Amino acid sequence: MSRSRIEGLLAAFPKLVGTGKQHTYVETENVRYVYQPIEALFLLVITNKQSNILEDLETLRLLSKLVPEYSPSLDEVGVCRAAFDLASAFDEAISLGNKENVTVAQIKQYCEMESHEEKLYKLVMQSKINETKDHMRRRVTEIEKSKIDRGKTEKAFAPLRSPNDFSDTNSRGAGLGGDPIFADSFTQKPKGVPSALTATSKVAGGMKLGKAKKTNQFLESLKAEGELISEDTQPSGSQSKLSSVPPSDPIAVAIEEKINVTVKRDAGIHNFDIQGTLALQVLNDTDGFIQLQIKNQDLPGLSFKTHPYINKELFNSQQIIGAKDLNRPFPSGQNETPLVKWRIQELEESSLPLSVNCWPSVSGNETYVNIEYEASEMFDLHNVVISIPLPALRGAPSVRQIDGEWKYDSRNSLLEWSIILIDQSNRSGSMEFAVPAADPSTFFPISVGFSASSTFSNLKVTSILPLREGNPPKFSQRIQLVTDNYLVI
Prior knowledge:
- There is one protein chain.
- By secondary structure, the chain is of the alpha+beta class.
- The chain is built from eleven helices and 21 strands.
- It has helices at about 5-15, 55-70, 75-80, 85-95, 105-110, 115-155, 165-175, 180-185, 195-205, 205-225, 310-320, and strands at about 25, 30-40, 40-50, 95, 100, 250-265, 270-280, 290-295, 300-305, 320, 335-345, 355-365, 365-375, 380-390, 400, 405-410, 415-420, 430-435, 445-450, 460-465, 475-489.
- The strands form five sheets. It has a nine-stranded mixed β-sheet with strand order 9-11-7-6-21-19-14-17-16, with no helix packed on it.
- A hairpin with a 4-residue loop joins strand 16 and strand 17 (about 415-420).
- The longest helix is centred in the first third of the chain and has 42 residues, at about 115-155.
C-alpha cells in the first residue's frame, strides 16, 4: 500500500464512526475498520473484507494490551513520545499482515533484545570489577595497619637506640641484596629511631612508601615464577579473605582452596579446577626460624609450586617447608606470606561439592521454575547462596515451595536462594517459583557461592620444626574452601 492510500483510509475513518453504536467495526466497499476506544483515542486495525473478523478482534485485543506497556499516558502526547517503541512492539505482533502467535511478555523480551551471552559477559565483567575493588580495600587496610604498627614500634623503642644502631640496621637490610621475602623482617619493625628521625619520617612518609615497594617486589617475584598471585584472584562477595582476623598464637597458617567451575545446564562440565594457597604469619622475629611439616592427600592432577626462597628439594622429598638459607627467618609482622601454591586439574563432574539443576517450563501465561541441589558427602557447606537471574518483573516472584530461605533483589532482578548449612540432614533440596511467561534461557547463568572447613587436597600442617634450641612455638591453622567462580550456564 502506498502512503497516500494509507492516509486516505485514515482520513475517512472519523467520518465513518458514529456515536452511540455498540459494535466496534465499520465496513466499506474494500476494507474493514476494526477499532477500540482507549480513553480519548482510538486503536484502529484496517483489514480487507476477506479476513477473519475473529482473528482481527484477537489482534486488536493484543495491541490494546501493548499500548499501556509502552505509553506513559493514554493521550496524544504520551502515545507520540512512545511512538517508536509502539511501532517496534506492533511489528513483533503483526508480520506480513498476519498476527504472530506471541504474548505480551514475549514481545517485551524481543524488543529488549536480551542476550544470554551478553548477560554472561556482563556477569564476568562485574565479577572482575568486584575483585579489583576488594583488592583495593585490602591494600588500603594493609597500608593503614602498617602505618599504625610502625608508629607504635618507633614510639616504644626510640629511647633505647642510637643513630649509629639505626644506620647499622639499614646497612644490614641493604646487604641482603633486596630479597623480597626476607626484607620485611628488617623493614616491618624498625629497631629504634631517634625522635628527630621519627618526626622526619612521619612528615615525609618516605619509609612508609618503601615498605609498599618491597611488598610489590615480592609479588613481582611470584609473577616471574609464572604464578597466579593472590591479588589477581581475590574472592568476591561473601567469600572469606586470608587475612581477616588477627591471630592470637605466635604462628598462624592459613590454607585456602578456591573453586573455579562452569557447569553446563544440560549436564557436563565446561571447566573445573582448584587453586590452593598456604600462607604463613609470624608475629615475632624470634619465632621465624622454623620449618613446617605438612601432609596432603595424593590426588591425580595435583601439582605444587613453592616460592623461590623455599628449599624445593626438601619440600619434594620430605614435604617440609623451609627456607634455603637456614640463617634467615621467615618475615614477621601482620601480613601473611604465601609460601606454597597448588592446583588440581582433571576433576570430573562427580567431584563437584554441589550440583544445581534448573527446570523451567511454560504453562499458559506463567513460567514455573523448579530448582534442586544435590550436595556431595565429602563436604559440609556453609552459607550457600544460589542466585537465579529473572526477567524484568513488577513485583517479587511467587515462591511456591522452598527448602531454606529466599530474597528477591529487584535492582539486579535476582532471586537468591540461601541455605545456612548443608550437612548429612539435608544433602538435597528444592525450590519452586512462578513468574510471567519468559524464555527458559532467561534463568541462566546461575551463580553459586559457599564455603567449607575442609579442602580437596586435605593439606594441613602437622607440626612446627624449630631450627634453634627451645620448644616449638604454638601455632594455629585455618583451613577453608571457597568459591571463586561457580556458574551454571
